[in-house]
Amino acid sequence: MRKLGSLLCTAAALALAGCTTPATMTARPATAVQVQAGTTPVAAGKTEVLWLGQASVRITTPGGKVIMIDPWLKTNPKTPANWKDLAALGKVDLILVTHAHFDHFADAPELAKMHNAPMYGPAGMNQTVSTYGILPANLAPRFGKGGTILPFGPTGPKITAVRAEHSSELAYKDAAGKDIVLPGGEPVGFIIEMENGFKVWHMGDTGVFGDMRLIGEMYRPDVVLIPIGNHFVMSPQDAAMALRDMIRPRYAIPIHYGTTPQLRGTPAELLGAMGSAAVPMILVPEPGQKYAF
Fold first, then answer.
1. Residue 233's domain spans which residues?
2. Is the per-residue pLDDT at 239 higher than 90?
3. pLDDT in tens, 144-193
4. How far apart are CA 208 and CA 211, in angstroms?
5. Has residue 43 got a pLDDT over 80?
6. In contact, 100 and 168? CB cutoff 8 Å
7. Phi, psi at 66, each rounded to 5°
């Protein structure tokens, strides 16, 4: 990502939280600041978004709740070495999984057991997870597209499952060690509304679909975490069109690229496809870097 060179501008660091705050940025895109594994600083009134490679994102809400989305860390080639130990995440209050593919699901069951934290995901996927004993039912609650959960009560973050255009097979080893493929339900994205009303849309894996415009109009996300890798998800050009013409969030962070040769889309291509559009501001962190909003 350092090859972006002149495309990247330097932003001021937020000293209290040890991360970049988009409020200090004057240009698009911007770099973030490295954080150390094991630290979960919380800045009052801020939402912290830490990207750990592929679609793995840790969100710390203004109220201090820690939400881990699509955790694939231990064998993820893009996850920094100091984050491959799941204990480095610190406390985890909630886990969200957008679909059953290995690069989104892999470390979720272990993390759920480690913290006794529920792993919310597509209803069909979690039905399989509990039926096959991957997790007990109390750690694999089910909900579906259009549904909103209040896992921390009425004053905590709200999470809504929305459409994603992808597949969701669960590859698993049976009791004999044989590789099998199980139903994984339908993929989803998540709209996460913080205690202060700030909204993040983690799109999961998806291709372009027309209702992106509807979702943008209904929920008005401030930040969109958008896949750009191509082959299995949107290309950078498709992502640029969706951001510029359909969703128009304040900020966008590209994810799900560069992990395998097939995921060939790059942030530089995304920036080029955005043209002169001023909205959204494109933020391009390295894995292990975060922003405070």
1. 2-292
2. yes
3. 999 999 999 999 999 999 999 999 999 988 888 899 999 999 999 999 99
4. 9
5. no
6. yes
7. -110, 120
User: The tokens 């994984």 sit on which residue?
Assistant: 184
Strand blocks (E) in the chain: 13-14, 19-20, 33-34, 48-51, 57-60, 66-69, 94-96, 119-122, 142-143, 148-149, 158-163, 170-173, 179-182, 188-193, 199-202, 223-227, 251-255, 281-282, 289-292
Q: Which of 29-33, 70-74, 108-112 has the lowest mean pLDDT?
A: 29-33
Structural domains of the chain, count: 1
Q: Which of 94, 76, 89, 73 is nearest to 37 (CA)?
A: 89
**Which residues does residue 191 pair with via DSSP β-bridges, in sequence order?**
160, 201
| Residue 192 near residue 200, CB atoms below 8 Å | yes
pLDDT in tens, 188-208: 999 999 999 999 999 999 999
3-state secondary structure of 114: helix
Neighbours of 23 (CB within 10 A): 11
Structure tokens at 289: 């870097």
Query: pTM of the full predicted structure?
Result: 0.87
d(CA 40, CA 158): 21
We report the CATH number of the domain holding residue 89 as 3.60.15.10
Which H or E run contains 112?
helix 108-115
Instruction: Kindly list the distances between the CA atom of residue 230 and the CA atoms of 192, 266, 270, 271, in Å, as whole numbers in the listed order.
Output: 25, 9, 11, 15
